[in-house]
Write a structure and sequence with these properties.
There is one protein chain. This protein has one helix at 28-37, and strands at residues 9-13, 47-51, 62-64, 70-72, 77-82, 101-107, 112-114, 124-131, 135-142, 146-154, 157-158, 164-170, 180-182, 198-200. The strands form four sheets. Strands 4, 6, 7, 10, 11 and 12 form a six-stranded mixed β-sheet that branches. The longest helix has 10 residues, at 28-37. It contains one helix and 14 strands, in the order βαβββββββββββββ. It is mainly β and 208 residues long. A hairpin with a 2-residue loop joins strand 10 and strand 11 (157-158).
Length: 208
């Protein structure tokens, strides 16, 4: 007998000599009872069966987190990446051979990659803050507002859903030190005359 299981877990295997219960489709417990009464089950049934998950597949692993849709500039945002096998079963990896993680944002408006880290004067910070046999947690901080495609790769292969389209980085709250006033009204004025001026709100990272 050869079979091909795709769902990992602990099961009980029933093996019969013959087709099926005399009255099928009456519910599994009743079918088992009928097969026992009809002596269709072979001796030793049910057999305990443990099906293990297969090795991790990058393109079946999944990423979860609000940062896959939108974030606030300068805020810390966590994304959990859960390892899955070819049949979407949760699986684990070898800590001594942990998957290589690559993460980057693609600026939709400027049509270019954002890779410069905050340590190098850039807008993006990425940290791996937790590693487990079955998942990894990464923390991102992006200070440049805009619309991006978010790419997450394991061993140079995209996880399921990556690149995640149109991730919005919204400006933080207005910062008084970066607010700009412009117009004739801030330089002169006279009685009974209207002199307009413009206030441009910007956050601490100079995002409008």
């Amino acid at each position: 007998i050869k079979y091909y299981p795709t769902v990992a877990g602990d099961f009980r295997m029933y093996v019969t000599m013959g087709c099926c219960a005399p009255h099928p489709n009456v519910g599994f417990p009743e079918e088992i009872h009928q097969m026992m009464e009809s002596k269709l089950l072979i001796e030793g049934t049910p057999f305990p069966l443990k099906i293990l998950s297969a090795e991790m597949m990058s393109n079946r692993s999944i990423a979860i987190g609000a940062a896959l849709r939108s974030v606030i500039a300068g805020s810390e945002n966590d994304i959990d990446i859960y390892f899955r096998d070819a049949h979407n079963n949760p699986t684990s990896v070898d800590m001594l051979n942990f998957p290589k993680i690559k993460f980057y944002l693609w600026d939709v408006a400027k049509d270019r990659n954002v890779s410069l880290s905050q340590e190098e004067g850039g807008p993006l910070s990425i940290q791996i803050i937790e590693t487990n046999l079955d998942k990894v947690k990464i923390r991102i901080n992006m200070t440049l507002a805009g619309t991006y495609n978010l790419n997450i790769l394991l061993n140079d292969e995209h996880v399921m859903g990556s690149p995640f389209p149109r991730v919005y980085v919204h400006a933080a709250k207005a910062s008084a030190q970066n607010v700009v006033c412009s117009g004739i009204g801030i330089r002169q004025g006279s009685k009974n005359t209207s002199y307009p001026f413009k206030i441009t709100l910007k956050d601490i990272y100079n995002n409008p």
